[in-house]
Amino acid sequence: MPRPVFVIPHYSATESSWRFLDRAVSSILEQTDPDWDAVIIDDCSPSSDKTARLQELQARDSGRLHIIEKNTNEGPGSSRNIGVAWAAERRAPFVLFHDADDLAQQDRLRVTREYFQRRPDVDFLYSTFEVVNEREEPVPTHTLTSSIQEILNGHVINPVEGRDQWLRVAVEKGYTTWTSTVAVRTELAAAHPFPTTFVSEDSHAWLRMLAAGTTVAFADTPLSRRRICSSVNGSTTRQRYGSDFYWIKLAVDLDAFSRALEFARLRGGISDLDEIELRRRFHLRQAETMARERHERGADLCRGLAALALLEANVVAPRPYASSHDDRFAIDGHAHTVAAQPSR
Predict the structure, then answer these.
(1) What does residue 321 show for φ and ψ, rounded to 5 degrees?
(2) Which pLDDT score, from 0 to 100, does residue 327 have?
(3) What's the whole-number average pLDDT of the chain?
(4) Burial class (CB in 10 A: 0-12, 13-18, 19+), 54
């Protein structure tokens, strides 16, 4: 029978990265449900001995561990697309995305399989997670960056669940589905590939998947441990791009929102005025995230774009338009309430 597939994009430029990959593989080998495949897609790591290292890793379980080596470095999104295609060719029922420096909980596959078997309507499953450092020690929540705290807090209070939840993610919750907890039915993953970017490629794909009418489920038990090294302030991608990280993130997130909004419009139920208001709230939510990250220039840009939406609304609407109250949007015949967010 076709087996579910762990999709693991990988890029190692340091010894610690190789060590983290080895530990990630160990966590998958320790799954209580042994019926799986895992494909590691190396994104053109610079190590001269990478092929030998990868082959040594595969030898730990050559029947279930598989290696694909790329000739160009294009980012984790491109690698995940290759992994999804590999899984689709083998008719895998679902894929479990897993970053190479994270750790899967032993019951991750068992819990995921039970959800998909019990809930045939669910195509997308995610969970909360634990944060550990380079020594796999728990990291106190108050020491985490505001963006990580935002995600974890969103799992405690009214987590995203159900059908047509893209609006809540786009204008209320923000990024809430950490990649190494996400499992998706293979058909859905293949229909909504990741962009070839190095920033926000995962949130781009998740939002488009949800906007397609996907039903999402939340497992309140942690399915993975996210590794954040104590010497790194935030992700390694943030370190690589510096302040440019936030400008790239804003551009990619805006493209994701625009594409998701188009999906929703094609399915019906969103008027021109609704679209303008949703864009306003999206920009305000982005401004809130930028402010939490202390990127005030980005926050001011988002607030300015939100203010423009009010001017546009007054042109479209037959009367002066203000949004100081909760508006209701009918999408696919269902009413959704999105709370207005205050501007600064």
Answers:
(1) -110, 125
(2) 43
(3) 88
(4) buried
Alpha-carbon dihedral 56, 40, 115, 262, rounded to 10 degrees: 170
| Residue recorded with tokens 């992994």 | 83
CA distance 17 to 45: 10
Each residue's pLDDT tens digit, 87-104? 999 999 999 999 999 999
Following DSSP, what letter does each residue of 145-193 receive, concatenated? -HHHHHHHHHHHSS---EES-HHHIIIII-S---GGG-EEEHHHHHHSP
Q: Burial of 145 by CB count in 10 Å (0-12 exposed, 13-18 middle, 19+ buried)?
A: middle
Helix, strand or coil, per DSSP, at residue 208: helix
Closest CA to 124 of 112, 135, 142: 112
Alpha-carbon torsion (99, 102, 104, 108), positive or negative: negative
Contacts of 74 (CB under 8 A, 6+ apart): 43, 196
Residue 8 has pLDDT above 70, yes or no: yes
- Tokens 């002066």 identify what position? 320
Q: What tens digit of pLDDT does each residue of 168-183 get?
A: 999 998 889 999 999 9
**pLDDT-derived band of residue 272, with 50, 70 and 90 as boundaries?**
confident
d(CA 104, CA 42): 19
Calpha distance 133→226 (Å, rounded): 8
* Residue position matching structure tokens 């750790």: 103
- β-strands 334-338, 215-227 pairing: unpaired
* pLDDT score, position 321: 42
CA dist 103 and 84 (Å) reads 20
Do 302 and 294 form a contact (C-beta atoms < 8 A)? no
Q: How far apart are CA 194 and CA 255, in angstroms?
A: 12
CB contact at 8 A, 3 and 94: no
